[in-house]
Design goal:
about 130 residues; mainly alpha
Length: about 130
């Protein structure tokens, strides 16, 4: 059993690192496609981390409201994340929204990778 707990902890840690790197990479791509000026990989990673943290906090706060809380949390989180992107990358709302879409794609890819790795880790720990 301790091996399974260690495997899950390791997968979570790896998933966070992958999510940060992918988020920064895709945010950089999205910002370049949107025409955001003066964006670097470092700025993109910091912006991705800020968006991830705020998304987690907002989801946590609104999760106490059954059913509708998830929808409200998503909408509030979207507005705040677009504002964060707009502020940190010094751009307008349209370009920030396009950049946010690329960040969401990266987060979905990171979640899929985490599930695959976690499944393989648990299978290895069990057998």
């Amino acid at each position: 059993m301790p091996a399974a707990i260690g495997a899950v902890f390791g997968v979570v840690l790896v998933a966070l690192v992958i999510a940060v790197i992918l988020g920064g990479f895709f945010m950089l791509i999205g910002a370049n496609i949107a025409g955001v000026k003066n964006v670097s990989f470092g700025k993109a990673i910091l912006t991705s981390i800020a968006c991830g943290v705020i998304s987690f906090i907002i989801s946590l706060v609104f999760s106490i409201v059954p059913v509708i809380g998830t929808i409200i949390g998503f909408i509030v989180s979207l507005f705040i994340q677009v504002f964060i992107i707009k502020s940190m990358l010094n751009t307008n709302t349209g370009k920030a929204l396009l950049t946010w879409i690329f960040n969401i794609v990266a987060q979905v890819i990171a979640i899929v990778i985490a599930f695959v790795v976690m499944g393989a880790s648990l299978a290895a720990a069990a057998g």
